[in-house]
Specification:
alpha+beta, two-stranded antiparallel ribbon, about 15% strand, single chain, 5 helices, globular
């Protein structure tokens, strides 16, 4: 059974919502790319850091799912001559997405605590 999100009444952001590994990689890569976060740059950063091949379809499906959750939003940038006039989407992580990342990070840090000798 899926855990329902608990919402913080003060700011309306999720509390105790955990983001899966691939979603975390996507959100973190979008944040790393900054205000110019297009899918290609996000994909390249994820591949460089994780050492994995990132399927374009998996990335786009995840970005769509993150948008549905309210964790990312995007805007269209008009295409210039270098892109043959093709527009592209630029992604940003929302406050809700950052809150979900913080919650996931805190849970993982707590689980890692005391395991340094075993895992290093």
């Amino acid at each position: 059974m899926a855990q329902e999100a608990q919402w913080n009444r003060e700011d309306g952001l999720p509390r105790n919502v955990f983001v899966g590994e691939f979603e975390q990689l996507v959100l973190l890569a979008v944040l790393q790319e900054g205000n110019r976060a297009a899918a290609l740059g996000v994909r390249e950063r994820m591949a460089a850091v994780s050492g994995r091949r990132i399927a374009r379809g998996a990335l786009y499906r995840t970005l769509e799912r993150l948008e549905e959750k309210g964790y990312v939003r995007w805007k269209v940038e008009a295409g210039g001559p270098e892109r043959g006039g093709h527009a592209r989407r630029l992604f940003t992580v929302t406050a809700r997405g950052i809150a979900a990342l913080r919650s996931s990070r805190q849970a993982l840090l707590e689980l890692w605590t005391g395991l340094e000798d075993v895992l290093t």
